[in-house]
Amino acid sequence: MSKLQEIYDEARQYFIGGASAGGRFNSTLQQPLYLKSASGSRIIDADGKAYIDYHTGSGAAFFGHNHPRLREAAEKAMDMGFFMNFETEYHKELAKLFHEFFPCAERVRFSNSGTEVTMAAVRVARAYTGKDIVIRFEGHFHGMNELVWYNHNGARGKKNDIGEVENISDTAGTPQCFSEVIRNVEYNDLESFERCVEAHKGQIAGVLLEPVSFNCGCYPAQKAFLEKVREICSREGIVLIFDEVITGLRMRPGSAQAYYGVTPDLATFAKAIGGGFPIAALCGKKEVMEVLNPLGRTIMSGTYTGALMPVLTSIECMKMAMEPDFYDHIDALADTLYGGMNALMKKHGIPGHVRGIGARFGIYFGVENPEDDYNWRKAGDSYRCDMTKSFLIKSLRDGLYMHDCGQAAPAHYGFSVQHTMEDIEITLNKFDKIFKEMKE
Ligand code: PLP
């Protein structure tokens, strides 16, 4: 019996589904993949099989696995006492780096995870405005936060007469009353957004969005849409929140807010900023952030927030991202991988396309028109789950790890800073064979 099977059989006796986290169940494998180790761009499973990693720790391993500079930073924390629940000069150094790098970061507060930090962002928006309603967008994901966890996993709510989408919670256990203060709108649909703001005038605390929704492929904002949302939020006194948990660091210097040239009032970061160590950050305009304790009476704190080890690794991540040629490497890999995949799909007559920005991408099997990527519903209409499944099974077989949580919308994949052009070439050669097989 394989070691993988052995671990799975035993793990099921203690864990639901054989995994300590639901998201680690790989629906293509119909079990979790148990690992032995990971290094650079590779993960090694319990049976010793190596994969080029296109999951990259749900995006947290953007700097690859076991990066020597991050190891060094973690060791420094070990030498300092590793956990004190105190501030150090390094906390201040990290906040300064955020301030220099992210346009909205006049003030910074740390947290542990993307989920926690988006919860805090919503709390801050409500405290600052004294209002309750939050507008969010269909398909967007903001963590396991039932305050805003609706309509992500392929569910399509009915639209009402002003174009608002019915809230469908992504998890059981959400109190119905939470839904009363959440309005859902289609992304890039300016008319519905304007009507929604008008209908709830004077009651809206915040607008929460993923500037590029990588959580169901790669659904970018149209620049004009985002600019108009910014304009309306400023006019109406609504706090604009960018959830940059995925886009943060991965796309461009300054992340999505710099890419679009639209500065939100608040932005949340996690995943890549810690290089695999748990840290998140709420960044925002001074005036809005001043509702936080100890100045204000909005609480955002915790035993592990700003723990020393992630603070030190995050400093290294930020420094690496600020090096002048950092994004040249990302862009070169991205162009070769996405351009190569699109050419191969064409060569083998596979319907669909790949869209990526920076180090994250979605594969839209069945979606022929790339313009549909701006429209979650339209892309969903022609998206082919069956092709994705066949592709993922073959990729795993051939040593390419593409994670699948079993959602109905395109999953998102990514590479790391430690991926090389050789990794991409190996990958494209494998895809050539896989696409040919898929056509047979
Ligand atoms: N926000 C976005 C955009 C995310 O993609 C995620 C996780 O995938 C989260 C928030 C939640 O982050 P975490 O898993 O660190 O709680």
TrEMBL record:
Its cofactor is pyridoxal 5'-phosphate. Coiled coil: none annotated. The keyword Ribonucleoprotein does not apply. Transmembrane segments: none annotated. Keywords: Aminotransferase, Pyridoxal phosphate, Transferase. This is Aspartate aminotransferase family protein. GO terms for molecular function: pyridoxal phosphate binding; transaminase activity. Belongs to the class-III pyridoxal-phosphate-dependent aminotransferase family. It holds the Pfam family Aminotran_3.
